[in-house]
Amino acid sequence: MTPALLLAHGAGGTVRANFSPLIPMLSRKRRVHAVDFPGSGTTPRATGPLRLDDLADRLVAAADGEERFAVVGFSMGCAVAVDIALRYPGRVSALVLTAGFARIDDETRVRMREWRRLLAGDRAELARFLVPAAVGEPTRRRMTAEQLDGFLELVALTVPPGSAEQVDLVERIDLTGELPTLDVPTLVIGTKHDRMITPATTRRLADLVPGARWAELDSGHAPAVEAPAAWGRLIEDFLDDVG
């Protein structure tokens, strides 16, 4: 039987925001499971700092009854995917890590701290910070003024209440010691125009995973918006190849 598929979303995101265009495609051959992390979607906000192990356990629990599964991680979700592979050996058939990191660099850390600062203020100002960081310049150039205004408004209205805890977790993640021990087929996907998690940062993640394959999307840090079909094809082709 084709292994199931788990989806791990990014910080300040939700399953719907980060993956909804891909789910119909990915569901054609395998069962897809996902869960919103604390403070996202309808999941209650955490009462303390988030732990990577807890997020991993929540996602595996959402796939109750599945003996084996692949895991697709996006941004912070890449670390969750890696943690699942390390803590549930033998059950993970493959990893697909998109716009991820082993550990954020100093430039990204500055962006994370600005993100956290803006979370305490005006949501419109936060959106004006997040959109240029997340959406690639080629995509922004193709948007009309009305489309850009609408997207800014959407982002301002849909900031998950648990974003602060999720961004804090991003700052604490360091998988540089664990990644070389991974023993699972892995595809790492960089996002070519990303200003949130740069392609170089994602490339460093790929270099630490033994035998990892590398691919790139012509998008910024919002592949579900900018290049959903191409992203879905990369995932499907890889999973079919290692399946």
Short characterization:
With 243 residues, the chain is α/β, with parallel strands linked by helices. The chain has 12 helices and 6 strands.
Please tell me about this protein's structure.
This protein has a single domain (4-106, 161-242), classed as 3-Layer(aba) Sandwich (Rossmann fold). It is 48% helix and 13% strand. The chain is built from 12 helices and 6 strands. The protein has a 6-stranded parallel beta sheet with strand order 2-1-3-4-5-6, with helices on both faces. Helix 3 packs across helix 4, helix 5 (106-119) runs antiparallel to helix 9 (163-172) and helix 6 packs across helix 8. It is globular and about 45 Å long. The model has no long low-confidence stretch (mean pLDDT 96).
The level of helicity is 40-55%
CATH architecture: 3-Layer(aba) Sandwich
Query: What is the CATH fold-level name?
Result: Rossmann fold
Structural class: alpha/beta
Overall pLDDT: 96
Tell me the total number of β-strands: 6
Name given to the CATH homologous superfamily = Alpha/Beta hydrolase fold, catalytic domain
Number of helices: 12
The percent range for strand residues is 5-15%
Low-confidence stretches: none
- Reading off the top of the CATH hierarchy, the class is best stated as Alpha Beta
Order of helices and strands: EHHEHEHEHHHHHEHEHH
| Spatial separation of the terminal alpha carbons | 10 Å
Number of domains: 1
